[in-house]
Amino acid sequence: MVAITGVLKTIFLSVNAQLAEAYEVSYTSVAALTGVPLILSAVTAFASLVASRVWGKRPLYLASLLLVFIGTVWNTNVATSYSQCMSARIFQGFGWGAFDALVLGSIQDTYFEHERGLRIAIYSIVAVTTTWGPPLIGGVASQTGSGFSLQFTILSSFFVVAVPAITLGAPETVFDRAYTLAQTPATGASKFKASLPIAPRRLFSLEAFNNYIVTMKPYSYSSASDTTTLLQAPRAFIAPTTVLLLLVSLLPYCTLWGLSSSLSLFFFPMPFESSPANIGTLMTGPWLLSTGVVATFAFFSWWHTHFTPKLHVAAVAGGSLLAFIGVLTFGLHIDASMTQPEDDNTSVFALRYLGAKVNFPAMSFVLGLLAAGTYVLDATVRPLIRASTNFTSSNMGIALRNTADMSAGVSCWRAVFAGILVIATPNDVWSWDGLRSLCIGVAIAQMVIAALVASVWWLWGEDIRRWDGRIMRLVDLEMLKRTGSFFDTD
């Protein structure tokens, strides 16, 4: 499902101009087909984090799967109705939010420390690859007689595997390991006592499968909610580390989404008249470079185990520099290529001459530099959040829980602002001068923000972690009330 939701996020990037013509609406309205689901997915992700504390993750996965399925199938037959297309996208946005916010927590719940690295690396690579890679194929598929609907038709076929896999195979991952171990024979009877011995491995049998189907429930538990439980995720969203990580990565991330969603606006009209397939190829750079950066940091275990303030400042500087070069070069090159000489008349021939000066492979590469810088900055999220939660948490379980909440907080805030910028960017870049001004402003602002945020972390890094602990109340007082020793289970 992570792959399916990734494809859905960027499925319209190469066909926005064609949609504007088919639906007879403005380009801004078509850009909203990407921006609105991004914003709604952040709302759903936040709600899912809160709800998972009460009902667990499994019912949320099932409900989200249903929403994404309805929205995707609906989008296969909305070629003439903008309102129906937007409604289908709203279903998709509400659906993919839970998968954005909860999957990292499920991995941390399910696997031990030495097992998580590979799983999180695979998850990260799949997420970024399926987000920025599909426009290359989607542009080609959209040039058929079925138009953009063919993309959704193809994607709907994957639900043949996804629906039974999620319905039957997604276990409930939320449980309190510390509490399980504390319930020992010395402390009284426990429902976990019988589950402590390792069960023998059994081969698949029809009887076991029938028993599994009969006993399977859409939910695993329903716990009583209190203010402390419901406020865990909101506190993580406003923790100082979460806010600083958001600030330093916000402009590159949002600009990447805004420019990518406006590619059809730039290159579909005269003098370019690029097809959806050609526009899709512009995403080659972002796809390759972002995947390469994510894979490098994901499998570079030393980065996570030996993360220091010097490495952090170097990553912020390097990521910001890549983003600066990428966004500035993108705007300046297009503006310079499309600026008409004073002695030329405004004519079709002059425009075609100017359009031929734009280097499309170079544009793909510099857009890839922006994506690479964005994900270099993103590579600092996990190490910094992990350092913060390990510094203030009373046990590993609480640290993992709040690590997932703070990581989801960064993602949710970025999704909200990215959705807003996706909708707003077309209004700012109708002219090449507007594109030039936007890129210059973003490039300069990013370097200033990066310098300020890096300085704050360098000078007051430990104080920031202490404020995280105060705001999030990471010390779990309930653990102090529990009796029993870990050694009683030996």
Secondary structure layout:
Layout: H1 2-9, H2 16-23, H3 27-55, H4 58-74, H5 82-110, H6 113-132, H7 134-141, H8 149-157, H9 159-169, H10 177-182, H11 206-215, H12 227-230, H13 232-237, H14 240-261, H15 263-267, H16 276-281, H17 284-299, H18 301-305, H19 309-338, H20 348-355, H21 360-378, H22 381-392, H23 396-428, H24 432-472, H25 477-481
Helix pairs in contact: 1-5, 1-6, 2-3, 3-5, 3-23, 4-5, 4-9, 5-6, 5-23, 6-17, 14-19, 14-21, 14-23, 14-24, 17-21, 19-21, 19-24, 22-23, 22-24
Explain what you see.
- There is one protein chain.
- With 490 residues, this protein is mainly α.
- The chain has a single domain, classed as Up-down Bundle (Growth Hormone, Chain: A), CATH 1.20.1250.20.
- The chain is 75% helix and 0% strand.
- It contains 25 helices and no strands.
- The longest helix has 41 residues, at 432-472.
- The radius of gyration is 24 Å and the shape is globular.
- The model is unreliable at 177-200 and 476-490 (pLDDT under 50).
- Pfam families: MFS_1.
- Its main location: membrane.
- It comes from Lasiosphaeria miniovina.
- One of its GO terms (molecular function) is transmembrane transporter activity.
- It is a multi-pass membrane protein.
